[in-house]
Specification:
By secondary structure, the protein is α/β, with parallel strands linked by helices. The chain has helices at residues 2-26, 57-73, 86-96, 110-120, 134-142, 156-162, 166-174, 184-192, 214-227, 243-257, 273-282, 311-316, 336-341, 355-363, 373-385, 387-403, 407-416; strands spanning 50-53, 79-83, 101-104, 124-128, 147-152, 178-181, 200-202, 232-239, 261-267, 287-289, 302-304, 320-323, 345-347, 368-369. The strands form two sheets. A seven-stranded parallel β-sheet has the order 3-2-1-4-5-6-7, sandwiched between helices. The chain has a seven-stranded parallel β-sheet with strand order 10-11-9-8-12-13-14, sandwiched between helices. The longest helix is centred in the N-terminal third of the chain and has 25 residues, at 2-26.
Length: 419
């Protein structure tokens, strides 16, 4: 089955590269360093590295506390971090700078994977969440590289898809030394798609161990004083196509009742910055872009954060947060960040990628789930009027986060057995 997968991948590789170039028209970063995706590197690198793969921004953010702990415990072992997206790459470089080496993950073809492994010679591989690459995993097994899938989660939707390719998936999973899952439900689903029970350990979710830099919070509060003075700021974070329209539809009614309301929109993907601006202007709204470095005057309706890596700081500048990817079937995004920063949290019905966290927050009365535009409008109005409710949500969410911390240390102890 893997041979067929490889053949198909070889055949579509030209189209994959063309798609990369096409995406680069709107987001030029996709066209940079494309040779890394083919396992071709412009300079020599350190070898015998501890290799961590984080697909994009969310996985990268979750990996940072673990990487810093590993650096403290093993200062002599160089660390390589791979990502798939330019936004993930930018975040790694912003947070870790030259403390680690960073390249893009190579495409999953044997000759490309071999170049990658020969160049870096990893002593251990750590894959965040649920990335499964048959050729990469097989090559690691052939080279006796211990491979760990950590912070692993598997929704029922993903499990259904994986069950359709057992002949490809089961041999790939067999190459993994340990799969450290977030919950017992994830463990059951991994076994269902072909993992062995002996491979599974339930260690919790390392996203609870995020570090909130006090300087970041302070910067957010200063930003609010400098640019959003006298405004009640509602941040709409990590939005996808179709979500801004829902918020903009209810904005006039909210604005009539909350005259000082300001929408702070943070699109998930940089290539949508201009699209969201046009969408707002088509509705006659006054827009300020973050890159313009202008204060929001009384007439400003929308502030668009066309920047990367500032979300935590922007949460600290807000009075209320809605986390996107949850009004459309994307599966949601990390609601723990605003909760840990101390902002009341709202999210939509589509949270299947963060189901356990969402359910836990709701059970702890630390967030509000809005199933449609009407309930979203009502929740915003209720929270604006009720300071006690806002304080209660923030306090409950903070306790929920603290209660579930500790997974990073458990994962580090697991990796120590192979280091």
């Amino acid at each position: 089955m893997r041979q067929l997968y490889t053949l198909v991948f070889c055949l579509i590789l030209p189209w994959v590269l063309l798609r990369l170039y096409w995406r680069g028209i709107k987001a030029p970063a996709y066209r940079l360093r494309w040779r890394e995706r083919l396992g071709v590197y412009s300079a020599d690198s350190q070898r015998n590295v501890l290799w961590v793969h984080a697909v994009s921004v969310g996985e990268a953010e979750a990996s940072f506390p673990l990487i810093k702990l590993l650096q403290a415990n093993y200062p002599d072992i160089p660390i390589l971090v791979t990502t798939t997206t330019p936004t993930g790459s930018a975040r790694v470089r912003a947070v870790l700078a030259d403390q680690v080496e960073h390249v893009y993950l190579p495409y999953d073809l044997p000759f490309i994977v071999e170049r990658f492994l020969k160049h870096f010679r990893p002593r251990l591989g750590v894959i965040m969440e649920k990335e499964i690459w048959p050729n990469l995993f097989a090559a690691c097994a052939a080279r006796a590289i211990p491979l760990f899938v950590i912070n692993a989660r598997l929704s029922e939707r993903s499990a259904r898809s994986y069950r359709k390719i057992p002949l490809l998936l089961k041999p790939a999973l067999a190459c993994v030394k340990t799969i450290a899952v977030q919950t017992m439900e994830d463990s059951v689903r991994f076994i269902d798609i072909g993992a062995e029970s002996a491979q599974l350990q339930v260690l919790g979710n390392i996203k609870f161990d995020m570090s909130i830099d006090l300087d970041t919070v302070r910067e957010g509060l200063q930003l609010k004083q400098r640019l959003f003075a006298q405004r009640w700021v509602w941040i709409i974070a990590s939005t996808h196509q179709g979500e801004e329209e829902v918020v903009l539809d209810i904005y006039p009614a909210l604005k009539a009742l909350i005259p000082q309301l300001l929408l702070l929109i943070v699109p998930r993907h940089p290539e949508r910055f201009k699209t969201v601006k046009v969408l707002c202007e088509q509705r006659g709204l006054t827009v300020v872009m973050r890159s313009e470095q202008q204060a929001c005057i009384e007439q400003t309706d929308v502030y668009i954060a066309n920047s990367i890596g500032e979300l935590k700081m922007l949460y600290a500048a807000a009075d209320l947060a809605f986390v996107g990817g949850s009004l459309v079937p994307v599966g949601g995004h990390n609601v723990l960040e605003p909760a840990a920063i101390g902002v009341p949290v709202l999210f939509g019905p589509e949270m299947f990628n963060f189901q356990e966290i969402a359910q836990g927050l709701l059970a702890a009365e630390g967030a509000i789930q809005c199933v449609d535009s009407f309930s979203l409008r009502e929740a915003v109005m209720h929270l604006y009027k009720d300071e006690h409710l806002r304080t209660s949500l923030v306090g409950n969410a903070s306790q929920f986060v603290q209660k579930n911390q500790g997974a990073t240390a458990k994962v580090a102890a697991l990796l120590a057995q192979s280091l």
